[in-house]
Write a structure and sequence with these properties.
single chain; alpha/beta; ten-stranded mixed beta sheet; 12 helices; 12 strands; 19% strand
């Protein structure tokens, strides 16, 4: 079974969790792409996991790291994309492969994600739209106590105990069929961080493939606590890029205005680090139109509608 899957882990100062991550996939062909860690991660991986292929490079973003790892593998039937702050539980990899083998129409299978305390981490999501961004950024989902029309972006109303076809699943752990990648292409590395898996799932589905959620395999994911919610601006940038690519510049501009109102509100409501992060995002979103912001970020290709 181990030869059926290749594992890709991208790290940047991943020392707190990398040992548990790599221990959980020991025995599988694994590529670690390190993006210039300064905390000793590369040295630790080299010493503790000598069987792992360690690749070094500048930090060009998570998607670019995934692509580098994928192309370094020896064409396995499946790819397991795994965050450095995530680890598979028990026989989750084998369960994912066995399930995927029964669904040849599936490009992506996402496992059930758990928080480190064992509680459910909601990982099923709906594709972004201006309305769905509004429900998230303007706190409508929380104000309506998860009422489904207001919570689709965050997977509200989804039964996470049931296998089902979905829009997309959180990219902390993804089993991806290599055949589908050969047809649809690699991850779009115009996404630096966030939304790369959203775009990939959208492209798979548009090409006729399925994206499935499978709770019969479980993965623990540290998630937001690993970065403390500091990356509000980067999340907004990724949302703009996705909207421009798949819905056009007018939709991206509407999304910019919605997100601007939302982060400005959060800057008033939050304290400490989160307030600082939302103020930074507010300043950035105010500094230009959606197309101007994406061009500044090197997003000229992503700012064109995809048709």
């Amino acid at each position: 079974m181990a030869t059926d899957v290749g594992v890709v882990v991208v790290t940047f100062n991943g020392l707190p969790y990398i040992e548990r991550c790599l221990d959980s996939v020991r025995g599988y062909d694994t590529i670690v792409v390190d993006h210039g860690s300064t905390d000793g991660t590369p040295e630790f991986v080299r010493e503790r996991f000598p069987e792992v292929t360690l690749l070094h490079g500048e930090n060009r973003g998570l998607a670019a790291g995934w692509n580098r790892g994928i192309t370094a593998l020896s064409s396995p039937r499946y790819l397991l994309i795994l965050n450095a702050d995530a680890w598979v539980m028990e026989d989750a990899v084998q369960h994912l492969i066995a399930f995927a083998d029964t669904r040849p129409d599936a490009a992506v299978v996402g496992p059930q994600l758990l928080n480190p305390d064992g509680t459910l981490q909601r990982s099923v999501r709906g594709f972004p739209t201006v309305w769905r961004l509004a429900t998230e950024y303007l706190v409508l989902r929380r104000l309506t106590f998860g009422f489904r029309p207001f919570s689709a972006a965050a997977g509200g109303g989804v039964d996470h105990t049931t296998t089902q076809e979905v829009d997309w699943v959180v990219g902390a752990a993804l089993l991806v069929r290599s055949e589908a990648v050969r047809e649809v292409g690699l991850v779009d590395d115009d996404f630096f961080l966030f939304s790369e898996e959203v775009d990939w799932c959208y492209r798979f589905r548009r090409a006729g493939w399925k994206v499935l959620y499978y709770p019969g395999a479980r993965v623990t994911h540290v998630g937001e606590s690993s970065h403390g919610g500091r990356m509000v601006r980067e999340l907004a940038r990724s949302n703009l890029r996705y909207m421009a690519k798949h819905h056009g510049e007018r939709a991206a501009e509407r999304a910019r205005k919605v997100m601007l109102a939302g982060v400005a509100l959060r800057a008033l409501l939050h304290r400490g680090e989160k307030r600082v992060a939302n103020r930074e995002a507010t300043r950035w979103l105010r500094s230009g139109s959606a197309s101007e912001l994406l061009a500044q970020a090197g997003g000229r290709r992503a700012s064109r509608p995809s048709g």
